[in-house]
Amino acid sequence: MLRIVMMGTGTFAEPTLEALLKGPDPVVGVFTQPDRDTGTKRASTRQVGRGMKEIAQEKGIPVFQPESVNASEGVAMLRDLQPDLLVVAAYGQILSKEVLLVPGQGGINVHASLLPKYRGAAPIAWAIYHGERHSGVTIIRMSAALDAGDMLAQEKVEIYPGETAGELEERLAPLGARMVMETIARMKLGPITGSKQDPALVTKAPKLKKEIGLIDWTRSAEQVSAQICAMQPWPTAFTFLKREGKPPVRMMIARTGKIIAASSGSSPPQPGLLWGSDGSSLWVFTGN
Fold first, then answer.
1. Which residues are CB-contacts of 152 (< 8 A; sequence separation ≥ 6)?
2. Which end of the chain is more exposed for a tag (fewer CB within 10 A), N or C?
3. C-alpha to C-alpha distance for 118 and 279, rounded to whole angstroms
4. Interval 131-176: pLDDT, tens
5. What CATH number corresponds to the domain at position 44?
6. Which domain holds residue 232?
7. Number of structural domains, the chain?
């Protein structure tokens, strides 16, 4: 048997923890981000479901929430658990070499992208933002570099038209849970090797910020639509409705509908110009 420590935060990580708790190997501890006052400060862009802390405590699993697992106190917490393997999913902290050396078999990470594309904190959102047609999950052997380890398993899924980041995450989370259990089963049969990531194909998926939601109407209709989908459930895309003689009104845009072609005239319509409304939707000109 392997003594497993799980590290993760949010709804993407929760199915993996639940699968581990049902598995044959003991989960001896769970590390998750410290509790935050979400009413005044946002600690993470990740969705929160039942909560890693609550799931673990229901099963009597010790929970640890250090501000930094890489600090001496965090490393000591981990070392006391004597883990054989770390399983990490959307934890929100980059693990130091010292942390990764604690378990005898190192760590594996459940990453929500087709690595080496979209390394970083928000791979699902950035894949949708850039108009990718596919996403997926990659299981990697962890290294000190961000999401750069050898790939032990990878599965691809289609990104549906109009699918938001939150909706895609809901599909990828159980996929990641299944894949990590299959990977652990292989590891118990003997050493496994993975494939190297091609450095030439690496792209980044940095943490989302609120200002990324501001719509630039000079972009194409397809790009604006992808941005709106990518920003759900957080930070949500937004624009400003400007009215003559009145201050601009900030408008949060959660969904897009049809993309239609405007009739060509002597001059192209101004991007951002409100064309009209059909009673339930607003129509806005974009860059093409």
1. 108, 139, 140, 141, 183, 186, 192, 194
2. N
3. 39
4. 999 999 999 999 988 899 999 999 999 999 999 999 999 999 999 9
5. 3.40.50.170
6. 210-284
7. 2
